[in-house]
Amino acid sequence: EEKLVESGGGLVQAGGSLRLSCTASGFTFENYAIGWFRRAPGKEREGVLCISRAERSTYYKDSVKGRFTVSYDNAGNTMYLQMNSLKPEDSAIYYCAADRSALLDDCAGSYNRILQIWNDYWGQGTQVTVSS
Fold it and tell me: What average pLDDT does the segment 103-109 reach?
């Protein structure tokens, strides 16, 4: 079965760090745009960090620039989101997604656009809670 599985969420104090993993099962990230999204309580899902399919250019949501980074393993089927200097407002369920057709601009789209464009693979989500 082809799917994405996230892991690595948890509870951390403000200023701390977490690393999330997203593992593709049954496929690799080659030829896919990939991204991390999150949904905070009472808010719609938003794009946090995305990587374009061809150029591997990266989009960062303004509020995470300088704090969040992405990396991959050599096999090309696991993506990591390193989150440093975490803030309470980073608390959310974090999802990874992969899509053959999504463009970098689609990372910053509205909730409806995100769900419309990013529709090949979604992970089940992992909870990140940052205490103040």
Answer: 88
